[in-house]
Amino acid sequence: MKRLLIAALAAVVALALVAGAVSAVFLVDRGAPDPEPTGEPGPAGLARFYTQDVEWTDCRDARCTTVEVPVDYEDPEGETLRLAVRRVPAKGDGGSAIFTNPGGPGGAAQRFAGYIAASLPDDLRRTHDVVGVDPRGIGASRPLECLSDEQFDAFIDTDPDPDDAAGIAALGESVRDMGLACEKNSGALAAHVSTEETARDHDVVRAVLGQDEMNWFGFSYGTQLGATYAELFPDKVGRMVLDGAVDVTLSAGEQGLGQAGGFQQALEAYLASCVDQDSCPVGTSVDEASATISKLMADLSAKPLEASDDRLLTQGRAFYGIAMSLYSQDTWPLLTTALKGLVAGDPSVMLTLSDAYFERQKDGSFDNNSGQAIYAVNCLDEDDAPDADETKALIPRFRQVSPVFGAALGWGVMACHDWPIEALHPQQAVRAEGAPPILVVGTTRDPATPYAWSEAMAEQLESGVLLTREGDGHTAYTSGNECIQDAVNEYFMSGKVPKDGTVCKE
To answer: How far apart are CA 58 and CA 54, in angstroms?
Structure first.
């Protein structure tokens, strides 16, 4: 069971797939010159990467290139890979760039750059390019090859809440088999997709794109990536916004408990809205509705439901379907429809929600490797995952925190214990000493990155400034809250941060 750190991208993509969201298209200003490297040599032994010339091409609504980086920064003369970079040019005289990452880990930043460019105000877009770099092993940056589509489909069906020793063993074996497949099919790269290495990649790209400073707009896991960059290169930080922050100091168990509480809180907020309507399919009170969902999940564990196309809705798929719909209030009506079907014995809408979470197509293929890359990155960042016995002891506490999500998220915390590839660069604490003000944005009822994590990130960063959105859903900037948008936009434009502790109400 993976940890649910698919960030803003999950909500954006799910809305596009399920609700028909429209993405923006830009016209490329072919008269604007492409950027040239800063000429700085970078850290010792890396000059050829920092000073490389690249060739830009038109790519529909932007300009695209690839940037060469070492697979292993401790062996810069060894194997290399090329990172896919997409730049949405400024609408006026550019020169500055805002790098963005949608989260995950596993989200492809190239396509996300267009979405963020469309979300930023015209004043900012006149002066700033928006840049998306697919992280190593993800998207178009030599994506990790691990399980086949058919094998990953079976992986999703692994019981997330095992009842016996055989089920617990099956969970561990499923993760171990994925890691072995990554190692076999992707070679040395499988051991080098940590957050630290990806942050170092972004510094290379910054220099190649002629940026003296790193302006950063990261969401969910993208906050961990941005904060890690700031820790490694505090003197290169420009204006950095971390929306829906991750507390990198937490153990696997603590992080899992935080998400269990976050998703339970989000579920209860949804259920409170649902039971206020006459048509709520799971009950007339929050307690009754929560109990109904717990029973539906238990029934699926005992006997999956068959859809009209002969596919089965397992407990695992239902878990992902419900979780996906809690990332945004916009998808709450879809959850109501899915639960109505589930009560009537029709799993089709819940399967659609689960498929949207993983970007699974009707033919059984997956649009990308995000569902597998999240394990590879998380497990190379983590060296403290509990074993099966330690995890089993945690499960009662997880169930207490969340009757619906607790056990599944609880068993998920042991995943990296079974990952077969050594964590060479585990996640370190982030202080970013000497960096200019870094704006951390948290949402009070964020399911995937609980608000307490944003509070912690702002406290841990030496120059952290906390901006709060009171509301539901994952991350803040794209929620439509004008107070949040105005504060972030002003910061990117002028460098002025809001007063620490500022709260934006819905």
So the answer is: 13
